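the two lines:
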Amino acid sequence: MSFDLVANVVVAGLFTGLVYGLMALGLSVIFGVVRVVNFAHGEMMTIAMYAVTVLFAAWKLDPFFAVLPAAAGFFVFGYLLQAGLINPFITRPEHSQFMLMVAVAIIMVNALLLAFGPDARNVQVDYQLESFEIGKILIDKARLYAALAAVGAAAALFAFFRFTLTGKAIRACADNYLGAKVVGLNVKRYYALTFGLGSACVAVAGCAMVLLVDVTPALGPYYTLLAFVIVIVGGLGSMTGALLGGVLIGVSEALAGLLIAPSAKSMFSFGLLIMVLLFRPQGLLGRKS
Amino acid sequence: MKRRQFNKAVAAAGVVSLANPFSIVRAQAQKLRVGVILPRSGVQGQIGQSCQMGAEIAPAVIKEMLGVDIEIMSADNESNVDTSRTRAERLIQEGAHVLVGAFDSGQTMSMAQVAEQRGIPHVVNIAAAPPLTEQGYKFVFRNFQTAPDIVREGLSLIGELFQATNTVPRSAVFMHVNDTFGQAMAKGIGGAMQRLTQLPFKIVDTISYDPAAKDLTVEVSKAKASNADFLLLVCRLNDAIILRREMVKQRWNPMGIVSPGSPGMYEEQFTKTLGKLADYCISNVPWYNANAPLTKVVEKAMAKRFPKEKLHFHGLNVGFTFEAILVAADAFKRARSTDPKTLADAIRQTNITSKMMLGGPIRFNAKGQVEGIGSACVQNLNQVPTVVLPASAAKAKPVFPMPGYKKA
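prediction for all of em together
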């Protein structure tokens, strides 16, 4: 097995893992603050992917130019979803929240089936099939750009939470619900804002992901499960953990496919999940409860 | 006849009809209800919808051909084995007299089990796994090649391809989907390669992959690293598209991409999505006879019902699905009954010589399998699947190696 082969596979896995990480970041942000597990996460990303294919088909809009409108649209969608539907369930038992979000996911998948049918769709940008050559390593252009977009979006999110007043307020709500209320923060509004931000994050992930895979309505549940695996491995509620988890899963799947068997890729990532649950249940960067 | 004799005769007729009340119903059976189960959504949705066209044109064409009324009861198994089973149960409960389906071997197996348990004839349109007709089922019939047949015909055509193009590739990397069909094909190819010593190439690596995979980067990297002369591929549709794109991204240009018998590369969606990248891909598959009178009838019916669709993209799917329903209708006409056992017996006696697909007449052997179904070497040329071998059915010469081939 040559070094070139391993290097090519690892690089591809790393870039894919960064996009996975961005997808999982939205889930981690939502859970970290609102304490609601969004079981419709993958379905929301699928909707974003379809939105990008529609924009591309209508106006030949490159997915990267669709990032801002997609993020804005999903922010509003997420905000309204939280404020209108999810809010009443925050104080209810966890199984009620689970059923609600699963129901939302099923509705989304079937709505997509009704609207778009079962056929796979994609975007065919000019650079879709091009690659950069660095020595013997071939870097897929679309994958590289998607990874850069994921890193940029994650950095923006980190900066928002660290350096803005709203970001600090949201962190305060996450850290101490009662304390935040006592100092006069409108916690419900910040929850809705956070859900909006998490949804915007998943929309950006969708813009990047559509360059890597063809979209079908059935994609949602697969990515919801993957997002959970990543977030649990990285640490529920940890943003850095989500990114790290994404990269770990991306690279480990690629290496498992290369060193064991391509059909064993998913088996390896679930194996990693089991190991984390057994030996570090709070996740690699999560905090013990 | 005297009155007493007449009264005795009437009384005897009354006793006979009382003893066999269903004879009246049987004599009145006017319509055959055909339950068609196909993967019209999910991973194989596009191929299932292609097959469905064959089912939809069948009633009108068969009415014209045989004077028989058939009603199609369609169900979507969502490309799922368990759903295939439940759909079969439901169609039988709703009164289907015969089942047709389901394209995918795993989905067809689960359907066949239900058909056998319930004693309802099942005519397989497309599915290659050998066990379908090797388990001693009495109600399951297949008018399609088994995986060993596909492999034998497919590999033999590969040899003819090399002879026709004066090429001698020495190595191949074999990639296949990791499902019931792919594994059956892999087993068949492994066995056949040991017997077909006249083929000049060896398989240097075998790579299996998930048919629902969204990313085949690792698989293509491994295949490229094998430095094989050409790619031997057993695939489905979506994965074939992903694979071809990945080959371009990784700048892997082998001599050719040859399928010894699998769907995907001759489908319309493959060409529509990939454009020129779809060209020169070769599929050695059971195919339709473009010169057969029935083909022209089916083509005309397709043009009327689906004016935007072209038969050359759907010939295999439409042809075999149509023929499966034709088998059922032909049996119904001879049996003049919808009684399942009677229908099954009639199917066993089928002898249809006027058919659409290449090969001998439709005649079932003791296991319920049709033998002698032919294959053709179909190459995408100018984005149209074109028969290039055998020479007797060819519409163009084969192109091998593909343009852009670079020896590693």
